[in-house]
Specification:
alpha/beta; Rossmann fold; two-stranded antiparallel sheet; 7 helices; 28% helix; 28% strand; binds glutamine; EC 3.5.1.2; peptidoglycan synthesis; Lipid_II_synth_GatD; GATase_3
Amino acid sequence: MSTDSALRIVWVYPDLLSTYGDRGNLLILAQRARLRGIPVQSEEIRTDEPIPSDADVYLLAGGEDAPQTLAAERMLADGGLRRAVEHGAIVFAVCAGYQLVGSSFAARGRQYAGLDLYDLSSDRGPSRAVGELAGPVDPALTLPLLTGFENHGGRTHLGPGVRPLATVSVGVGNDGHTEGAWTKGFIGTYAHGPALSRNPALADLVLRWATGRDSLEPLDDTWHDKLRNERLAALAARGKDLRHVA
Ligand SMILES: NC(=O)CC[C@H](N)C(=O)O
């Protein structure tokens, strides 16, 4: 992002990929930037539009199998997201969006080619993972506990080019042990909720990457904290052991 221009945030294919309130990720990211005085330009690029390759941040959301395969096909043919990533754009991808930035993913009984932007691939798990997802984030990122809601049939396998975003205390995530993936400029997660509302520190990490700033002024996170605490208390009430979770 250059200093005199707005931060350009693109939500890719809201008409295909948009489940469980994932549009909230766009709203939260844009609002947390604006509250810091960072001008923002949000764009929703639908399936029949070319994906711009010169934006700063790209958001991909969840989707059912059929829309996910269509989205992958269109994105591969379009090429805009690949060009953007090659220019250093940041990608925040949730669930179906997370799976389709890997080399391949499973849907409707077979494997489909993904965009192969990051070192991960997905196949089908033995059961659907549905419910709360929580766990400590990779200490290298110094973020608080990840909390979210998951609903997916896929399981994701990480290569050496990415690191797990979190380890799983509650839920399934990638495989019951790790959840999501990251490398500088990329975060993938199975967390809906939306993820950036339940994890505002993750939104700020994306903003720090996008602006090149080492730190951002703190915001009033009262309502995010209430939501986080309510969700974590619900897990504790169900006897989930979160003691080892920061
Ligand atoms: N919630 C989602 O995005 C689901 C992703 C994918 N269709 C799966 O079931 O694994």
